[in-house]
């Protein structure tokens, strides 16, 4: 008895090809069907952005013009922006000077694997200038290498160069040789202190300039000092540091960081005010709202900055 053919003569090669490509063709029509159905039901939604900028990494973004900024929807929903697009900072701290250089990549990869898109780090003056006039940015103190490695791995960077950083270090990271001058007043515009800061910044900031976002680098923000509101000995000190950074070419978003009760005395005009959080209570953001409400640069940012700074700084 003659066996039946394996393929029916009615099943032409064209039909076979059509069946094969059907799974690839149908998904292209699915959004259209969904949108048309929503229109008929009167439940159409506005088009969603085609790309989530929060997932963008430094090496992927070639054309740059507008760095990290702030914006508001006009309905009390402020947010960060990058290139004018909504941008969520999800950051964690890794201090390069506390981690052996051989483990930098491992630690940064783990941060990235946890879903973070930003790394923050202090810059310790006392380690980079252990003796007056003798600077060290080599080996485990190679700030530039650490920042470039972060970019390679896909992380943005927020720098916290001080000069005072706290960071649970002696003198908050200020070099101990400053104490050799009994007339010098730390964290003020005292001549002896500012002269030392100027020389330090003259060595540090030129290394940071090419690492900035608008220069093609991963640095999207720089913090001015650290928690000065709890010290607050000189009203002219924070404006002085602000100008010192601008004068040397820092063009990315500048911010301050203070405890929730000290933000009024720690912020400075023209710089985004932010707070550190231990826990959230009903009145946690009251002082911050007062500052940001009166600040041109920070006025459109409140809840977003609080959430971002509490997790990333």
Explain how this protein is built.
This protein has helices at residues 13-41, 104-113, 125-128, 143-153, 191-208, 237-247, 263-266, 286-293, 303-312; strands at residues 68-72, 78-82, 85-87, 91-93, 118-122, 156-160, 219-223, 253-259, 272-276. With 313 residues, it is an alpha/beta fold. Strand 2 and strand 3 (85-87) form a beta hairpin. Helix 2 (104-113) packs parallel to helix 4. The longest helix has 29 residues, at 13-41.
In brief, what are we looking at here?
This protein is 34% helix and 14% strand. The chain is an alpha/beta fold and 313 residues long.
Question: Any descriptors?
Answer:
globular; TIM Barrel; six-stranded parallel sheet; 34% helix; 9 strands; three-stranded antiparallel sheet; 9 helices; alpha/beta; 313 residues; hydrolase activity, hydrolyzing O-glycosyl compounds; Gly_Hdrlase_35_cat
């Amino acid at each position: 008895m003659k066996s039946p053919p394996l393929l029916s003569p009615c099943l032409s090669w064209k039909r076979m090809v059509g069946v094969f490509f059907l799974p690839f063709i149908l998904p292209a029509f699915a959004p259209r069907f969904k949108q048309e159905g929503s229109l008929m039901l009167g439940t159409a939604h506005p088009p969603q952005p085609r790309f989530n900028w929060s997932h963008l990494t430094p090496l992927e973004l070639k054309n740059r013009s507008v760095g990290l900024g702030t914006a508001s929807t006009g309905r009390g929903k402020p947010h960060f922006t990058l290139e004018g697009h909504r941008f969520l900072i999800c950051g964690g701290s890794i201090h390069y000077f506390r981690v052996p250089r051989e483990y930098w990549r491992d630690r940064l990869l783990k941060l990235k694997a946890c879903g973070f898109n930003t790394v923050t780090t202090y810059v310790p003056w006392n380690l980079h200038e252990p003796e007056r006039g003798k600077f060290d940015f080599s080996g485990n103190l190679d700030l530039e290498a650490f920042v470039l490695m972060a970019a390679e791995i896909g992380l943005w960077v927020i720098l916290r160069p001080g000069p005072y950083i706290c960071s649970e270090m002696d003198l908050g990271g200020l070099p101990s040789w400053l104490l050799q001058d009994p007339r010098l007043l730390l964290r003020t515009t005292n001549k002896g202190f500012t002269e030392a800061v100027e020389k330090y910044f003259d060595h540090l900031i030129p290394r940071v300039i090419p690492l900035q976002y608008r220069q093609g680098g991963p640095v999207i923000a720089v913090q001015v000092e650290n928690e000065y509101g709890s010290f607050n000995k000189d009203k002219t000190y924070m404006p002085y540091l602000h100008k010192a950074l601008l004068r040397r070419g820092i063009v990315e978003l500048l911010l301050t960081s203070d405890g929730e009760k000290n933000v009024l005395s720690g912020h400075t005009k023209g710089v985004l005010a932010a707070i550190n959080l231990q826990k959230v209570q009903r009145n946690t953001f009251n002082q911050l709202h007062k500052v940001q409400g009166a600040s041109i640069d920070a006025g459109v940012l409140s809840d977003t900055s609080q959430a971002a700074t509490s997790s990333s700084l």
